[in-house]
Amino acid sequence: DEDGEELVMRARMGTRPDDSQLYFLAGCAAAKPATKLQYYRKAAELEPEFYDAQFELGRLCRTKEVNDLAASRGALEMAAGLRPRSFAAHAELGKTLAALGRTAEADAALRRALELDPSNEAAWFDLACLLSHEPALRQAQGAVSLPNPAAEAEKTLADAVRRCPTSGRLWWRLADLHWARRAYDAAATPLERALA
To answer: Cys-Cys crosslink for 20: which of 26, 47, 80, 127, Cβ 3.0 to 4.6 Å?
Structure first.
């Protein structure tokens, strides 16, 4: 069931069992999520300060195949700590925290990512989605919501489309937000931009 590259990696690991780089590369080459997980975990265990191993482990643990959000959070927090100026680590951590329902922490992580890369459309979209769902999430958690979550989501989306004016999905999200508030006239312009 293994391909030739994986067999070569296994042979090398037998001669260099403490080589975290080798385990990381084996994880990158592996096709099956369970095999990737085994190798990334070993690489991170051998060298906890190995950013790439922690980062990929965190992303993999958030997938539906692995679905271990606690492990994802731990690995991505470690990655963000190792490289505090890594946009990707903070953005991925924000996604994991959102999946865990940790809205305030997800908001902070995504905003940190946007401080590092203010024109990143994907992070703006993730933050807009988080803020759009924030009231329901906070109510489910029994937490206090923002004073005006719709206004905060609208402000964030306005910033997002200003920084990423060609993003159809950001314009669509802004139109959707206006539509949900029954502000149909306000929804028209973003909807036109989304469909352009």
So the answer is: 47
- b/e per residue, 127-156, with b = 16+ CB within 10 A? bbbbbbebbebbeeeeeeebeebbebbbeb
The pair of structure tokens assigned to 134 is 């924030």
Predicted TM-score (pTM) of the model is 0.83
DSSP the chain: ---HHHHHHHHHHHH-TT-HHHHHHHHHH--SHHHHHHHHHHHHHH-TT-HHHHHHHHHHHTSTTT--HHHHHHHHHHHHHH-TT-HHHHHHHHHHHHHTT-HHHHHHHHHHHHHH-TT-HHHHHHHHHHHHHHHHHHHHHTPPPPSSHHHHHHHHHHHHHHH-TT-HHHHHHHHHHHHHTT-HHHHHHHHHHHH-
Burial status of residue 19 (CB atoms within 10 A of its CB: 0-12, 13-18, 19 or more)? middle
Q: Which of 196, 114, 116 is nearest to 157 (CA)?
A: 114
Q: CB–CB of 153/131 below 8 Å?
A: yes
- pLDDT mean over 97-109: 94
pLDDT tens sequence across 162-194: 999 999 999 999 998 888 889 889 889 898 888
Give me 172's structure tokens: 């669509």
